[in-house]
Amino acid sequence: MAPSSTLPYITSHIYTVYLLFSTTLHLFLQIFLSLLSLPATLNTHLLHNGARYLEEHYHTPNAFALITGATDGIGRAFALELAERGWNIILHGRTQARIKPLLEHLRQKYPRQTFLPLPIDAANVRAGGISQALQELVPGVCVTLLINNAGALPPVRAFSGLSDEEVIDNVAVNVTFGALVVKALMNGWFGRRACVLGMGSVGAVMTLPGTPTYSGSKSFTRKFYACLRTQLSSPHPAFATPASSSPSTQLEILPILVGGVRTKMTPISEDGNIFFLTPQAFARHALAKVGLGREVYGYFWHEVQMWCITIWPEEGGMRGWVNKAMMRGVEKLRAEGWRRLSDGARMVDGRLVERGDGH
């Protein structure tokens, strides 16, 4: 009996030694690979001149940028930034009423540019609906920049407490709508050269509590753009461009991994936190990545933040422990922000403004 009773003890110690050795080896290799990729990281965030690339390759006369989810948060910040740079813009929003304030603001401030509304309910898009809405715009619209930004969190409560409609709508907004927008534009609306900025999320990399449908959707989005980019470069005849599409289009697929940005999704108003930036700042950082043609983090410190998680191995629960430790403080800040929003506060340019404030 004695040998058998000591077997679990011995096995446990052997596994502990194995975990210690494998974790150390994993960390060493990850740090070594990170050092090898350091030049590429510095080029991505410091040296690459995406603003110039955007102007030289995609900002052609009469070209349009189409921004989905343009009425608030990051999408609105992209619209303001591109308008400042002289772009014509198609503004997508759920309804004409939601688009109208931003549309009127841009038309008044930039009268020589063209701004068009594209009202489509992303949660209830039907087959052919996006193409039909595009056809109702002015003739000859040529899109050379798509910022596929529309996305939403489901109500913040237990997954079992969500209604079927809330789950279906959330997946439709985050998955189906974005894929259909890309497909519609590929069938004759893109210019000879065009770029797709697909807004992803660090939720596809780390585990975010309380957002199963959102994080799962962003995992789909990440793989969707990776597969689409590979398909576009494939010589296989099955992937040849159909006659209805624009065969001469050179399409850059640029998925952007988004971390903490101060919007209604992350209502944190805390100056001095390098991991949470305003939508306006994030839009500038993301546009600076145009021309790289691969998945990148939109902001340097978001990449550092995810590196601190992904450097750890899955086995043994180390990555999960680091993930939980990192999210613990964030969730407290988000919960406080959501409480203030429910009490009547508003997010204005990345800051929580209390009800009655004059801003």
What are the SSEs and their pairings?
Layout: H1 2-36, H2 38-47, H3 50-57, E1 63-67, H4 73-84, E2 88-93, H5 96-109, E3 115-119, H6 129-135, E4 142-148, H7 164-186, E5 190-199, H8 212-232, E6 250-257, H9 279-287, E7 296-297, H10 300-310, H11 318-342, E8 346-348, E9 351-353
Parallel strand pairs: 1-2, 1-4, 2-3, 4-5, 5-6, 6-7
Antiparallel strand pairs: 8-9
Would you mind describing this structure in some detail?
- The chain has about 350 residues and is of the alpha/beta class.
- The protein has a single domain, classed as Rossmann fold (3-Layer(aba) Sandwich).
- Helix content is about 50%, strand content about 15%.
- It has helices at about 1-35, 40-45, 50-55, 75-85, 95-110, 130-135, 165-185, 210-230, 280-285, 300-310, 320-340; strands spanning about 65, 90-95, 115-120, 140-150, 190-200, 250-255, 295, 345-350, 350-355.
- The protein has a seven-stranded parallel beta sheet with strand order 3-2-1-4-5-6-7, sandwiched between helices. Strands 8-9 form a two-stranded antiparallel ribbon.
- Strand 2, helix 5 and strand 3 (about 115-120) form a beta-alpha-beta unit.
- The chain is globular.
- The N and C termini lie far apart (about 75 Å).
- GO terms for molecular function: oxidoreductase activity.
- Pfam families: adh_short.
Defining key terms:
transmembrane helix; alpha/beta; Rossmann fold; single chain; SDR_fam; 49% helix; globular; 359 residues; 11 helices; two-stranded antiparallel ribbon
At a glance:
The protein is built from eleven helices and nine strands.
